[in-house]
Amino acid sequence: MLAVAIIVGILFVWTLLAHRLARWSISAPIAMMAAGIALTSGSHPPLHFDLDTHTFEHVVEVILALLLFVDAIEVPGGVLGREKALLTRLLAGALPLTLFAAFLTALAFFPDQPGWVLAILATVVVPLDLAPIYAVIRDSRIPSRLRDVLNVEGGLKDGIISPVYLLCIAAYTESHGKGAHYADAVLEAVGAASWAVATGLAVGCTAGWLMRQSWSHRWTEPSALRLGVLSVPLAAYTLSGALGGNGFVASFVAGVCFAPAARQLPESAVEMTADLATLLTIALWFLFGQIVNDQFWDGLHLAVILYALIAISLVRMVPVLLSLAGSGLKLTDKLFLGWFGPRGVTSIVFGSLAVTELPPSSGDFVSGIMVMTVMMSIVLHGLSSEPIGRFYGRARKAGTPAPTR
Questions:
Q1: Which sequence spans correspond to the domains of the chain?
Q2: What fold is seen in the domain 2-397?
Q3: Which of 10, 66, 314, 346 is the most buried (most CB within 10 A)?
Q4: Residue 368 class from Cβ within 10 Å (0-12 exposed, 13-18 middle, 19+ buried)?
Q5: pLDDT band, very low/low/confident/very high, at 73 (cuts 50, 70, 90)
Q6: 13-27, 200-214, 298-312: which range is least confident on average?
Q7: Concatenated DSSP letters for 257-310?
Q8: For residue 326, is it left (φ>0), alpha (ψ between -120 and 50) or beta?
Q9: What is the DSSP letter of 403?
């Protein structure tokens, strides 16, 4: 209990200084991770959590399910229509290229690893999490068009990558079986995705219709609606898992289907689910600090550091620049969208699952690179948020702001 009290105390101190720290580009993930590293380091650390692999895995899975649901709900409907061309370039063009670039880079750095392990690694280091750059999404100095596109991409990208990750896991499992029938792996992944989509559709549409009807007929009240909204992603996640589907995909699809109803409910209806997801995520960053210590207690490998650095920079930036060629955006705006692809909770979840799904050596390999990638992303993307905001602010004052169209 003392450990929990310390985490809560650190979180409270951060809330008191959030604005001041933001001016120094110190986000909540940076602050909590640094605190976790400091308080769990050494041979006799002040704090140390006994992180059972399966327990930790289930906790982070629930956090990701909540985040995917909230992300899907909060995607601005108008942006999908206004920025369809840009989003198509990023999701249909840049995303596949990014996965391929991550795989090729891994192949160059780690040629001794099996191909499917490197494919799994690519799906682990590519997902986007906007938590480390939350200040950027709310920074009015940056053109709203760029922030909206980045926000929508972040909301949709993880839901798209989840089935690809499952396919790679299934293919690896098949490749180490007696027959190595990849068709079975594809069928297994398609089956899991199908159950997930069906479950998400059923839960999201049904819950949305019922809650909209209940609210319009004044059968319920805002406080009850908040609990009802929280139950939707949890129901989609657990029911999909029971049916053999993927809970992440189900939660995301449920959010997409629930979104139209959410716009007709009080704004506060979704707030509790969003706040709970944020609170759990912040606590996760503290635990991630201990994971960093545990992972690199025996030292760091140069290849891991270099791969992680390339994964959070060139692996995304080059495909984004190629996909946005001819889009009409200025080079600075293309670089903005290319640079801000921070990694976070989704990578942690996928990396944790890899530990249980892969042999110990392969699982530890993927997990170690995931930890380095997420840690570097939190620091570099977080610290660059305020300077880039100032750059756009100066450009606006000089009368040469980035175009809004």
A1: 2-397
A2: Na+/H+ antiporter like fold (1.20.1530)
A3: 346
A4: middle
A5: confident
A6: 13-27
A7: HHHHHHTTS-GGGTHHHHHHHHHHHHHHHHHHHHHHHHHTTT---HHHHHHHHH
A8: left
A9: P
